[in-house]
Write the structure tokens for this entry.
Amino acid sequence: MIYFTELQNIPAYDAKGDYLGRLVDLAVDPSQNALRVAAYHVKTPNKRLVCITYDQIQSISVRQIQTSVPASNIRCYAPDEGLLKVKKDVLDQQVIDVNNRKVVRVNDVDFDIQPTNGHSELRILAANIGFAAAIRRLLQGLVAKHTIRTLSGLFPSRTIPWEFVNLIESDPARRLKLRISYDRLAQLHPADIADILEELSRDEQKAVIESLDDETAAQALSEIPTRMQAALLESIRPEKAADLVEEMPPDEAADVLQELSPETSAEVLADMGKEEAKEVRELLGFEDKTAGALMTTEFIVVGESATVEAAVESLRHFEGPLETVHFIYLVNNDGGLAGAVPVARILLADSTTPLKGLSFEPLIAVEAETGQNTVVDLFHKYNLVALPVLGPKGHLLGVVTADDVLEVVVHRR
Amino acid sequence: MATEETRSGLADPERAVADREAAGRLSLNRARYRRFRTSFLMFLAVVGPGIITANVDNDAGGIYTYSLAGARFGYSLLWTLIPITVALIVVQEMVARMGVVTGKGLADLIREEYGFRITFLLMLMLLFADLGNTISEFAGLASGMEVLGVTRYIAVPLGAVFVWLLVVKGTYRFVEKVFLVACVFYIAYPLSCFLAHPGWSEAMTATVKPSFQFNSGYLSMLIGVVGTTIAPWMQFYLQSAVVEKGIKLKNYFHSRLDVIVGCIVTDVVAFFIIVACAATIYVSGHRDIQNAGDAAVALKPLAGRAASWLFAFGLCNASLFSASILPLATAYYVCEGLGLESGINKRVHEAPAFYALYTGLIAIGALVVIVLSESKQVPIILLSQVINGILLPFVLIFMLRLINRKDLMGEYRNTRLFNWIAWTTCAVMIGLTVLDAFSSFLPGHAAP
């Protein structure tokens, strides 16, 4: 294994043994091979940059680079956005460590020298973020290389295998060229993605959000502070923002729309699906810090005379997130709330059982104007997981769920 | 089976819609009110960073320097406050802009553009410079509390523990409120200044009419006033604070206003301190004071007990305020720059370096003041000022280069005119600060 700090500034010689210059950067061409160093950028004594391609390399060591071709065959350096440069794009930059779900800064890059068809190739092994790498950076060029190796060996080393390194590139075109995908990131829990997003600058957040699918992006977005959500949504295209807000739970969506500037908010609402926009608009009408502002309008409701079978059927057709469904609500012919049936009871009952008999007693509900502190107290007192919210005539308007209450409590701390 | 709907459907959709619309109408007025209120609150929230930075700037060291300027030279240094304010605004506006546009801290940007070694050295120097600043905060607290009749052996440990707990255990909102209240307490200086009954017309004339004395004492005092007002840590702090607040480009106007108001507030407070001391201590003829506490004591026979107490109270407030922000900010951007975990939302085992730095700065700062005698603290504080002086040119030059980078700042780069002003300002600043740092070793030096 060899470190980038050890390769920087090593001399390069051509086939005749003539001095070419010093190595300044290494470049990978992800369109061909994601790991192999495709080009070696060398600065000649007269300050010109030349580019040695991987197939022109004879051997590499900590002391020197030996090419297999004469200097005349080595072409001039031409900038190429499709190349990933180790020094420019990786070293000292923030990357996502997908395995440990963290944003880290790269101190050094580890390579492996691989003999291939009689010549040597460099392959990226890992991003180095440890203390040992920091020592190498500090001493690089000032102290002999073997001394640095011994010294840095005394300190803990932390590396992220290259496959778990997710680069952050805010230019979408370049992201495409460099084949940066956030597939692995997308597999993390949205709350973990949110933690990562919070560590990034706005452009970087934008890059990540734009490359995730709408659903994952919206879920992650729901978990970051509302002010940050708003800043992020303001910076992306309104249509994309609308797609994301549409996917967010309606109560979260209403919160973030309130934080947006009136123009952006209107624009986003106009771009949203009709149904979703209507729900969110209704929520926007409730005063802050009331049950109405806390509640979600995604819940399941059936007629009071329905059976278990009907309840299961409605669960099947429910479009919202199933993991937040704890109750199926019953309404009478006037639309008034008539009961709340725990999903677990439905699971155990016969398919023909009328739901009315399974309803949770006593039925606890609040009005939309109820203050959030009362809501918190009710959750605490009655050990609730969900609390129905009623309109002026006893109509079911929405449901406050435990996660919303937890949010209030955490923020009150 | 009766009605069966998924989502929020109800038995009688039409009626339900009518009900909801009624509810919506009812709260329409409230909604409007709320929108107004949120935008006003947003302004307050955005206001934070610049004002807070400005007030930390008037810390114990600042107060002593201004007191000394008034005590030794009366009103004759007041005119410098206007050019200093302009320079402060020019510099601070640039970092605030960089924070808003890039969304990254200054330490982050320097690391990404100039590499590990330079960042490490900068951070190391910043750490030492800020350690010196922290010591002078606790020294300020000690001398202020002694005027109020509390011994330093009680005041300093209590102050250190209070500051540590406030930041580590306090919630964000609570801390923000405490800080805002602390900002309001700077009113103590104008009040004590009014009690000193200064010659207002004379003071005003001296503020707008430059005068100059060609002697080394005056010159080094002038440099001291400039050096204490524009410091390296502020640039890092302000940019990080702007980033933390998540200020949007759209609100940059508010943010710029915040910076400008903050800079003006700093120098208005400085004005009152200089005037108060000029009207009393300078007039009395006993013009030598050893620390800011001495200035408070010296006010007593001339302006009354109330003025003296207000002055000392202001000093304690400023010292504690700065002692809660400086070590925190230092730990924060040192960790950021070196890629270590940081932030008070992390637990101790998640961000060990951050907590070690933060706690270490406060503990060492307080210990030095308790254990070492005043004469032994002086060399440490002087050394930190020299480091500050060496650091500032680098920080300013890095800033100016970064803010002109097209790939970072895009259309928000400096205009040519602004660049001209900024480079001139920075050149003058650099010249004066370097002079200040080295004149610290000369006899007859003024600044603390």
User: Anything to note?
Assistant: Chain A has a mean pLDDT of 88. Chain A touches chain B through 70 residues (CB under 8 Å).
